[in-house]
Write a structure and sequence with these properties.
This protein is an alpha/beta fold and 594 residues long. 28% of the residues lie in helices and 20% in strands. Residues 492-521, 551-581 form the 4Fe-4S ferredoxin-type domain.
Length: 594
């Protein structure tokens, strides 16, 4: 193998698995260390720069960082990254003096953002301080989009939404709330230099089976029903409720039903339990509240009597695999099952809806009715129109919408300055030694033996009594500190200097995970299986040095390294050093706003 190019920003970034997995590339270990030091405001600002909504995401993020967390390879449970983010948000104190100020002068460019959800508000957050005149349109009276309308208050208090949307509106965008855009063509005819579409995926899928029309009064589209609950239009539901669907919206529907009078609430899914799209913790929370999840049942018909819903008939299916390993669901032949109910909530998926975008304005759509959007620049086939969030590529989580907003803002800034939108600015990267002495580091390199801490919950009787009572109470100081210590500081990199190495093998001898090997070099396929501990996870790179005096090379498996620093402590020549890697992704304007 060729020597590893550690000067490439992507190499050490990929080693910080949590940050690499985060769509917004939040520097997770950096803010966790700040929380451990009690510097909650600093930790919040690190988050705010990249993910914009730390208090919201600390409660609702889909947590792509946690399955990637290296701690999960040590004791199976990752660090509670998401809930530590909430710790920073809940304990940050006053921040107004630390936030950017509105631009003192305008640069003469005007941007429209359609929708006031996370993607659009991220675009506004990035462009307004640069002097752009940003105008945000939304049909609702308050900003937040589906964050406000579809996430139940027992998961996300409205005060948190108001606060974090307020940080963005304080930067100076013009908020034209209660003003729905009915024609993109009309907006293009105005004096906007660019338009960003962040309207989400606002249409819930329906289920066209016998009885749907006859029993329509008690069959509700899940996302619409959640919106009606959030805005106070719905305050009760029947005693017996069936929720159809296996995603996070279904979990929100069933848990909300329990709080609005549903005593017998079931979630019924056509797939298996493990295949459900809902996050594992969302399923756990539903079951904790006494809601059963029934799998491999396909709805065949709604039963009704005198225009009143009486139940749902289901066919039992099972997974069947063909000779190529492809899976399909086939009826088992078991008798159909009938479940009685008073209301049904349909949470079987969401779709985009663009009836307000004319088809003759130079903006192309694909065969599924989605706009053709460049996956890098977020620019549509109409050069002035950009998309992001669910409106761009279909339903995902808030953190994806934020990441899209950042990238779209980079493109809009480049477009308005007459630059090539495909030329993406590089990130800002720092590597700094953590050495404080021969055997001392400026970070705590002890590997905690603590188990993952469980977030305390409101007693279930109190939780189910109110649709607005927040269920998760958050970590207190002691639990937060203990959880921060589980972080393995993956951003503190083991950096090797081949010219200083005397090949004494001391580092390989002391390494607790046998991730260091001195060996004869060869191609990667031959090298991986014959390391001291075979490195079979090809998604994580090997760190390979240049040739050493004996002709051997140092090979380190980044997959299982604990970043404990023992190799650097043991090395007699300082060939190993522990260096903190900090990556800030570039944002609009080419700089970093703190």
């Amino acid at each position: 193998m060729e020597p590893t190019n550690t000067e490439s920003p992507e190499y050490f970034h990929k080693v910080v698995d949590c940050q690499w997995a985060c769509p917004a590339h939040t520097p997770v270990p950096e803010y966790i260390r700040l929380i451990a030091q009690g510097r909650h405001a600093d930790a919040y600002m690190v988050n705010w720069k990249s993910n914009v909504f730390p208090g919201i995401l600390g409660r609702t993020c889909d947590r792509p960082c946690e399955p990637a967390c290296r701690r999960g390879r040590v004791d199976e449970e990752p660090v509670a990254i998401c809930r530590l983010k909430r710790v920073a948000a809940d304990n940050k104190g006053e921040l107004n003096g630390r936030m950017p100020k509105p631009a003192a002068t305008r640069i003469g460019k005007k941007i429209a953002c359609i929708g006031a959800g996370p993607a659009s508000m991220t675009v506004a957050r990035d462009l307004a301080p640069l002097g752009y005149e940003v105008v945000v349109f939304d049909g609702e009276a308050k900003s937040g989009g589906m964050i406000r309308s579809q996430i139940p208050r027992f998961r996300l208090p409205e005060s948190v939404i108001d606060e974090e949307m307020g940080y963005v509106t304080a930067l100076g965008p013009t908020m034209r709330l209660g003003e729905r855009v009915d024609s993109l063509g009309s907006l293009l005819a105005e004096d906007f230099d660019a338009i960003f579409v962040g309207t989400g995926a606002p249409r819930g899928r329906d289920l066209d089976v016998p009885g749907r029309r006859e029993a329509a009064a008690n069959i509700h589209i899940g996302i619409d029903w959640l919106s009606n609950v959030s805005f106070g239009h719905v305050e009760a539901i029947g005693r017996r409720v069936i929720v159809l669907g296996g995603g996070n919206t279904a979990m929100d529907c069933c848990r909300t039903s329990r709080r609005l009078g549903g005593e017998d609430v079931k979630v019924i899914v056509r797939s298996g339990f493990e295949e459900m799209k809902a996050s594992p913790w969302e399923k756990e929370d539903a079951m904790h509240e006494g809601i059963p999840i029934l799998n491999f049942l396909v709805p065949k018909a709604f039963t009704h009597e005198d225009g009143r819903l009486t139940g749902v008939i289901f066919e039992e299916v099972a997974p069947v695999f063909d000779d190529k390993g492809r899976r399909s669901l086939k009826p088992t032949g078991a008798p159909d099952q009938h479940f009685e109910c008073d209301d049904v909530l349909l949470a079987i998926g969401q779709e985009n809806a663009f009836p307000w975008i004319e088809r003759d304005i130079g903006l192309e759509f694909d065969d599924w009715g989605m706009p053709k959007v460049d996956a890098v620049t977020f620019q549509s086939t109409h050069p002035k129109v950009f998309f992001g969030g669910d409106a761009a590529f279909g339903p995902k989580n808030i953190i994806w919408a934020v990441a899209h907003g950042h990238e779209a803002a980079v493109s809009i800034d480049a477009f308005c300055r007459g630059k090539d939108v495909r030329l993406r600015p590089p990130p800002m990267v720092n590597l700094s030694s953590q050495k404080m002495g021969i055997h001392e580091w400026s970070y705590d390199n002890d590997v905690s033996l603590e188990d993952r801490k469980v977030v305390p919950l409101l007693p279930i009787e109190s939780a189910l009594a109110s649709v607005k009572a927040e269920v998760e109470l958050g970590f207190d100081d002691a639990l937060a500190l203990a959880e921060t210590q589980r972080c393995l500081n993956c951003d503190v990199q083991t950096v090797f200097s081949a010219p200083l190495c005397i090949e004494c093998d001391a580092c390989a001898d002391i390494c607790p995970t046998d991730c260091i090997t001195f060996t004869v070099n060869e191609e990667e396929d031959g090298l991986r299986p014959r390391l001291k501990a075979p490195a079979m996870n090809e998604t994580q790179d090997l760190y390979v040095s240049g040739a050493l005096p004996t002709g051997r090379v140092m090979v380190k498996d980044e997959d299982v390294c604990l970043h404990c620093g023992l190799c650097a402590e043991r090395c007699p020549t300082g060939a190993w050093d522990m260096q903190k890697f900090l990556l800030d992704t570039a944002q609009a304007g080419g700089g970093c706003v703190r």
